[in-house]
Amino acid sequence: MPRFMPANLPVYSIPENPLDPTVLPSLLVADDSVGRLDERARGSVLRGPWNERLLYRNACAAMHAQNCLVYLEDLVLLDGFAFSGTIYPELSAALGILKLWQRALQDSASTLLAAPMPGEAARPLEWEMKADDAGAQERPDFFYDPSWDGSARLDRWRAIYRATADLPPLLAAAFAWDAWNVLAPEQQGPWRAPLLAALVLRARSKTKHLLLPLDSGQKLLRKRWSAADGQNVRIRDFLDIAAAAAKLAGTELSGLESAKERMCLGLRSVRKHSHLAGLIELIIAKPLVSIPMACKALGISKQALRALIPKLGSTPREISERKRYRYWTVP
């Protein structure tokens, strides 16, 4: 959503004593929660599919923060090339956010933060930042302010990010998140702030084995960044969001570990070249699985898939309640 601000550039600064007494309790809780989650992720055999799965709900939550509704099943099916409906604008935007987080999960966090557009290694800065190029001239002034000066705003954000080098990782991520919201380098809104905060945590080795789904944590707590709140309140809110995101991700990991253990019992009675193991991995990695999506991913027919599903036992739940469009999910 476009964000209208005065033409003069906003100012942001880190206080001399960032460890305010009102912030410290939330920092300790978030630091413990996030640290424990990363340690669990380090030793989990499901780290890859679990990380992939978290990003779908996080993308939907990112759209929710912009007052847009995107159905989880639509996003999963579209990403799996099995969506047969009409692609609405919010769904397209959610897919873009999902792909951005997926690439961020694979790339170096430090490299992405140093990119011309933070979070996107392969995207030229000029696409969004130059207000005097031909593309910007075609933008209607009703939606875009030609005097926004996104490059100067981005430079100010980078200065804040560099100034957090000596702060604890979670506090550094909190100020990077808050500064992006205040300085607003992009006119399209602050949707990128949670991604940058997650990358800061990863670059500082606080979350070596995951990207913390901060949008999901924000949706769970029903908290939103507000300029009307004081800086300490906003920093405390971020730390609470980080703790909630860690709790949510940990619960998801526990459920997936239990679900895979139960489903793998069916592998004992199948032949060596069965697609059952691949189906289990797909159900673990995706929030939901449809018949066309699974057939495309596994390269099998609908009849073969229908024969495999009962072998998984009662762990996968059918959530569609329609014979024509059938979806399964765990846990």
Mean pLDDT: 88
- Structural class, by secondary structure, is mainly alpha
Main sheet strand line-up:
1-3-2
Give the CATH topology of the largest domain.
Fic-like fold
Number of self-contained structural domains:
2
How many whole angstroms does the radius of gyration measure?
22 Å
CATH architecture identity of the largest domain: Orthogonal Bundle
Count of beta strands = 3
Shape: globular
What proportion of the residues form beta strands (DSSP E)? Answer: under 5%
Task: Please tally the helical runs, counting DSSP H or I stretches of 4 or more residues.
Answer: 15
SSE string: HHHHHHHHHHHHHEHHEE
Low-confidence runs of at least 5 consecutive residues: 1-6, 131-136
CATH class annotation of the largest domain:
Mainly Alpha
How far apart lie the N and C ends?
A: 34 Å
- State the helicity in percent bands: 55-70%
Largest sheet report: 3 strands, antiparallel
Please describe the structure with a list of short key phrases separated by commas or semicolons:
Arc Repressor Mutant, subunit A, globular, single chain, disordered N terminus, 2 domains, 331 residues, 3-stranded antiparallel beta sheet, 3 strands, mainly alpha, Fic-like fold
Give the SSE layout.
Elements: H1 24-42, H2 47-65, H3 72-79, H4 89-106, H5 109-113, H6 126-129, H7 134-137, H8 150-163, H9 169-183, H10 193-203, H11 214-221, H12 231-263, H13 276-285, E1 289-290, H14 291-298, H15 302-308, E2 317-318, E3 327-329
Antiparallel strand pairs: 1-3, 2-3
Helix pairs in contact: 1-12, 2-4, 2-11, 2-13, 8-9, 9-10, 9-12, 11-12
